[in-house]
Amino acid sequence: MPSWTEATHDEAPGTRVPPARGILHPELVGPVYRLGRYPAAPGVDEHVEHYWAVEWDLPTERTQPSDVLSHPALHLTVEDADSPQHGVAMPAALVHGVLTRRFEITLRGSGRVIGAKLRPGALTVLTGAPAHPLSDRVVPARELWPDADALRDEVLATPRDEDRCAVLDAFLAARLPATPDPRSATAREVVAHVMADRSLTRVDQVAAAHGLTVRTLQRLAREHVGVSAKWLIRRGRLQDAVADLQADPGTDLGALAVRLGWYDQAHLTRDFTAAVGVSPARYARSLRTPTPPGG
Predict the structure, then answer these.
(1) Distance in angstroms (rounded) separating the CA atoms of residues 239 and 227
(2) Which residue in 91, 98, 97 sits closest to 151, CA to CA?
């Protein structure tokens, strides 16, 4: 199952890391697993949005499902756990493509993960490889970086999250190109715009806003992010819907739908249910009366 993606909260006051979005069961943060988010070093931060860390230690007999609504980002992770993760023996250095579905995982035993959330276009800048073959997949990082197993060993030998981030900073900084890639920069700008602007509801609007043809925009999104431009628009609205419901589970769903660019509540319900797995009404109810961790 690909990618921890957005499963992070900001634990470090004063960092430049923005608030986390997409955790579908925020009541699990703290009681079930620890989460941290850390800024990348100057220069590297042009290609890494932030680093994130997850750690858990559950009783032997206990399991805990955890779901996340993913963002349009690929991730480089170093992971260790008592049992295989994502169908891969642990420990491992992995690359996670954009997950077009919601992320579902069941935690058991103990484990620890640190990851780099790559900005749009970063994978191509760092490896020369396009993003789309990795969508909905997780692969060993050595398929893209032959020395990734050495990175895994160095990270796992480093105890503190901040120091692990420094190891990742050094690894990625050594692979940055001498000349900036203008297409990567355009991909970053497009994704940031789409994820922030709810007035964008059609692909041709996005293309026009960035001086691109629709065909060029579609190719840019596929090669540098791994998804379609239409998916970007829809996922941005869904992230806002989840965040708004978490802030106020009593939000009027019809008004929410219109505010975020859906035609009506029925269209919101269709898209939300397909992505999150439950209707917005049922999700709101779960936020009002969350299931106790392990329940």
Answers:
(1) 16
(2) 91
pLDDT tens figures, 17-40: 666 788 998 888 888 899 999 999
Q: Kindly report the CA angle at 235 between 234 and 239, in degrees rounded to 5?
A: 120
Single out the residue of 176, 130, 174 nearest to residue 154, CA to CA: 174
pLDDT at residue 294, rounded to an integer: 57
Contacts of 174 (CB under 8 A, 6+ apart): none
CB distance 135 to 100 below 8 Å:
yes
Residues 168 and 282 in one domain: no
Are residue 169 and residue 31 in the same domain, yes or no? Answer: yes
- CATH code for the domain of 221: 1.10.10.60
Contact criterion met (CB below 8 Å) for 123 and 47: no
The pLDDT tens digits for 152-167 are: 999 999 999 999 999 9
Whole-model pTM: value is 0.90
